[in-house]
Specification:
With 332 residues, this protein is an alpha/beta fold. It has one domain: UDP-N-acetylmuramoyl-L-alanine:D-glutamate ligase. It contains 12 helices and 14 strands. The radius of gyration is 18 Å and the shape is globular.
């Protein structure tokens, strides 16, 4: 059990997800605009408005990768905090209220200005795959000074999302978290987030992972991009050599956790229904980190992650407001 004020502080983009169902042809038709099935691209204001017009009926809910993970962590009963930038607008207030309703400490000052709170426009195809188009909005104003040092120092784990590497100021904020936290024992966890993001910033990812990261989360596609190989086992060996603990998710194949020369194969749990993969990896990370913060064995941590991910893919969106993950604990 931790004596820190927070079991987890998550640092990342504060986004509201705008989700809709599309067919495969929609994705194909948008490839000329840079849309990549299963991936994430950054878009500007005009493109965001155009996409919204094309989307038809939508659902809106709070999202963001690291934010989803700390939401899952809190749902298990953990005490979490979030650092990220919203605006003084309607959806910014909704995002902050959603975090506070879960008991998550969220004190980053809002951006005051014309920029709107960020949104992620998510296209869900019939196979359940999510394709993301992110308008960063106020996240563009996230700076190192927004990182509250006391919060980082008082956290057992700090989770940083790889998406931050797309902006120099956000990357510096990422580095500040490691610089402030590591000397006092805060464990640094990181998600690679997106294979295309890894490819764009490969050298920076390698440097910070090797220098600062204790727990690395990655999908099979992401870790292959990181290791510059198409062979999963080779990619896993690279990850295990670079960090203390590597948590590698493989969709329906389950997950692999590597730590201290040991390997734990985590079986996937088949959902009652398969709806949407949005946030599945985020939920998995939240479950694993909750287990770690409670001193559980790595196989139990992986099981928690699998249970949280299964619940998440059973409905639309990256969070599970109708299910308390703590109610899953007796299933361990």
């Amino acid at each position: 059990m931790t004596t820190n004020k927070f079991g987890l502080v998550a640092v990342g983009n504060a986004l509201v997800d705008v989700l809709t169902q599309v067919d495969e042809q929609f994705i194909i038709d948008q490839q000329a605009e840079g849309m990549k099935k299963g991936g994430m691209i950054l878009i500007d204001t005009p493109r965001a408005k155009d996409l919204y017009r094309m989307m038809g009926a939508t659902n809106e809910m709070s999202g963001g990768s690291a934010a989803n993970s700390v939401s899952g962590f809190a749902s298990f009963g953990g005490h979490g905090a979030f650092i990220g930038k919203v605006g003084e607008d309607r959806i910014g207030h909704v995002f902050r209220a959603d975090m506070n309703a879960q008991g998550i400490a969220y004190d980053t000052p809002s951006f005051v200005g014309a920029e709107e709170t960020g949104r992620c426009y998510i296209m869900i195809t019939p196979d359940g795959e999510r394709t993301m188009n992110t308008y960063l909005g106020t996240n563009l104003h996230f700076r190192p000074r927004d990182v509250d040092e006391a919060t980082v120092r008082n956290a057992q784990y700090a989770l940083l999302e790889g998406y931050l590497f797309d902006r120099p100021d956000a990357k510096r904020a990422f580095e500040k978290v490691a610089r402030v936290g590591k000397p006092v024992g805060t464990q640094i966890a990181m998600t690679l987030s997106d294979s295309f993001c890894v490819e764009r910033h490969h050298a920076d990812f390698k440097r910070i992972v090797q220098d600062s990261v204790d727990v690395l989360f990655a999908s099979e596609k992401e870790i292959k991009a990181y290791a510059l190989t198409q062979d999963f086992d080779e990619a896993a060996r690279v990850a295990a050599a670079d960090v203390h603990t590597a948590v590698l998710t493989r969709g329906a194949k389950g997950a692999v956790i590597l730590s201290g020369g040991q390997r734990f194969d985590i079986a996937a749990i088949k959902p009652k229904k398969f709806v949407d993969t949005t946030g599945a990896g985020d939920a998995f990370a939240g479950g694993v980190l909750y287990g770690l913060s409670e001193g559980m064995s790595l196989d139990k941590c992986g099981r928690l992650g699998a249970m949280a991910a299964t619940v998440t893919i059973s409905h639309t969106g990256g969070r599970s407001p109708d299910v308390r993950f703590r109610d899953l604990l007796p299933q361990l």
